[in-house]
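task queued by scheduler; priority normal; single chain, no ligands, no partner chains; default sampling; output format set to structure tokens
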Amino acid sequence: MNSKEYKNQQDHQYCLEETETIELKSGIAELEDAVIDICALLNNKGGILYFGIDPKGTVKGMVIADSTFRKVAQKVRARIKPDISLSYNSENINGKTVLKITIPEGTNKPYFADGQAYIRSGTESIRMPVDDLKWLIRQENENHWDNRPCLDATLEDINPEEVMRFLRHMQDERRSEIDVTIPFEKALERLNLLSSGVPTNTAILMFAKDPQRFIIQSEV
């Protein structure tokens, strides 16, 4: 065993306990429950799920073939909506092979497993409370609206002086390193307020010469 392999094993051993972002499964027989855990992690901060390690952190190992990856991926794809893309890898820990699934934080929340949303609560995956689900849906809808291009708006509808004033304020507060001398359209790009060259709804709310023209009852 070389030093790199030893260090990697040490790192894994250090993490071999269930947390809010790490879920351990003894084997593929627990796939049904694992789908729920994946759903919960997507709705939370993301995380890692291991097959071949029991909940106490003991490495059991497992036989992994191409069909194993397909079986897990197909089950996840069939049961979790909206569709997601996960990373599946086999790893050697303490001389035994385990299956590691890397789950990113979801970008299209909420996610549902068999029509039910789940969330992490400590080391457990629980049904998402109704109020939490309503809040999450509202937040996601607002975020999506904020980032959408504003229909019929162009850069000519933006007040460059307002953009520069905002940048100077951010710089004074040391919250931005954007050069205040760059063209305002470049500043909007750096602020992620352009979508394919079109000002987003947020850009219109913040910097438009006449935001009410585009967004009824808009107010900053």
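post-processing summary
- Residues 148-213 form one domain.
- Helices lie at 3-14, 31-42, 66-79, 130-147, 160-172, 184-190, 201-207.
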